[in-house]
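Journal club side-thread
Mid-discussion, someone asked how the predicted structure for our own chain would compare to the paper's figures. Pasting it here so we can look after the session.
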Amino acid sequence: MSAEDEKLQKVLARAGIGSRREMERAIADGRVKVNGETATLGDRVDKTARIVFDGKPVKLDTGSTKPRVLLYNKPEGEICSRKDPEGRRSVFDRLPRLNGERWICVGRLDFNTTGLLLFTTDGDLANKLMHPSTVIEREYLCRVMGNASDDMLQQLVDGVQLEDGVARFTDIVDGGGEGINHWYYVVIMEGRNREVRRLWESQGLQVNRLKRVRYGNVFIPSKVKVGQWIELPENEVSDVYAMAGMSVPVQETVEGGGRVPRSAGRGRRSRG
């Protein structure tokens, strides 16, 4: 074993196939082969390893290509899974196609929730951005049906016992509105399933519009309309890595002292 050997699940995650935890499960399920042999948990590999995942060769990330990050403005009526038995449209359908890499969704939004989604080709980055220990704010704009009293709002900030533990909004800002519907900006620090909706429901109120407007220090630019994506430039990619407490992977130089070129997609609407 050399000093350059790395855990197999880490290599697979960096290649953009999934998170380390997902790759650990895939290895345990016998879905990964290394140099023709079925892999086992604990295996370590180097850059020369021939890795096959679900029968398809894996292109290893050797640091010769830049990690990429997309911002997508999700519309209603799309799921965050790649495939759906019901045939519903996926958020991946609109994204630019990759050669030898895979877009990884940073967190999820419900079928009827709109707004900001981040995608990256770096599995390590995606995993860190989603991990609760990173403590990244997620801000939502929600339209709430019903009368939210000051006591209710305070309770939502103090904390509410849900079926999967105590949850809270770290901030609530009145967004205005008249009649039975009222708008609020709310901030949460985790990404639990339907957390924003369930918090309001705990007070007998219902959310009938929900949009994520911020993930950490990333906002949706006004030019990115619903259903559109934009690739973040290098300086903003660096900011995303910093938000996750990571450094941008250093690219290896190629013969002649240059760097491996990478064409970057512009902020255009993907037709698909």
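Post-session note: The CA atoms of residues 154 and 172 lie 9 Å apart.
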